[in-house]
Amino acid sequence: MILLEPTTPSSQSSYTGALSTSSPIFYRPQSTTEDYHYYQALQVTITAAGTYVFTSTSGMDTRAYFYRPVFDPSNSTGNLIADNDDGADQFQFRLQVNLELGQTYVLVVTTHEEYVTGSFSVLATGPAYTNLLAITPSTSRPITARKFLTSILSITIVLPLFDFTYRLRTYSSLTFSATHFNNECL
Known about the structure:
By secondary structure, this protein is mainly beta. It contains no helices and 14 strands. The protein folds into 2 domains: 11-135, Jelly Rolls (Sandwich); 152-185, no CATH class. The termini are far apart.
């Protein structure tokens, strides 16, 4: 006689989104007030209690934070119940949480490095269907980004064989311009 152990049916749900320069920003837990990260908040609704796994797929190095009952971007450690960075392959998150029926949960998808943009998808696996809905959470203190133009780094390269100088300018590694100066102008 062969005895089979009962198995819990598994259901999969997914969400696809993107982080862009118009996405909201927050101070990630364990970061400083200088480290802004784009994020997408997803309200998680379940139809059965149990263990759920949330896994990301992206070209970005993703990170996840899980909150109950609400997420406040200006207080990223308040209501935090779980987080994960690189729990799955290729710098993706894998977050396993036990969820109760009738509770409100928020999954925050963000990145390991600040100011990173790109597309992502989240796969939710659990005993029942999981609804993932993009939301805009309210905040007690709105966060505004600092100016990207914080410093100018100038490097002068003199190439005497060609009798000219290039001055290179970079603005916080976001833009690059090169200006040619003839020696007579310097």
